[in-house]
Amino acid sequence: MARAPLERRGETEETRAAREALGPKPGPGARVAERAAHARERTRLTFRRLSGLDRSGPPPEQTLAGQPWHVWTIPNAIGLFRAVLVPIFLVTAFLSDNGTDALPAALFAVCAWGDYADGITARITGQYSRFGALLDPIVDRCLVISGVVVVFAFDLLPRWALVLLVLRELYVLYNGRRAIRLGLEMKINWPGRLAVAPVMSALFFAMCALRTFAEVLLAVGLLLAYYAAFLYRREGRRHLASRSAPSSSA
Q1: Among 1.20.120.1760, 3.30.980.10, 1.10.10.10, 3.30.428.10, what is the CATH number of 64-154?
Q2: What's the pTM value of the predicted model, to 2 decimals?
């Protein structure tokens, strides 16, 4: 009797999901082209999982409410290092003459790219944790707010555009809390993911005194961010409508 394959020892959830999506490996009798296609697909899936491009499936169990915090992990060490850098960035920025010194810009860049570093590290090592799931978005928000404060104070980007960015963040935060209160499951959409890079880059290049380039990036980021907010609202309304449909038809 054939037995179901056991889960591999030490296998992370990302690796297991990629293996299941890939399907069984071709046997010795398979054609060379079939084996080569399987190997290419395995490489593609692995890259998409590790880079965060493929986020299908449920969140890791270790990040859910009620799970142990597991503070002392490599990804959390990166996250804590990012958290320490945020106030240092603020101090060095306001000690500069015009907000465009090299040190605060470099600190901002390291802190921003550290967000990708801790995510990739968590996927490689499988060291997910509840603490990391809560820490990461808090550090991200603190970094964005700190960057906006510096750029606003030194007038490095149009202030009306920065106000629009802050209003969008407050709007999403309010609706996120409302969704939790109503018991709705709201997943991060792709426009929201894509908006992070141009917004962060706009703040960074503004601190590098590349105002025109930064303004273009900020415009792209705002368009994506507001489109993502629109999609969040539409998805929330759809969930509420589907929930009330059975009761209204009864």
Answers
A1: 1.20.120.1760
A2: 0.74
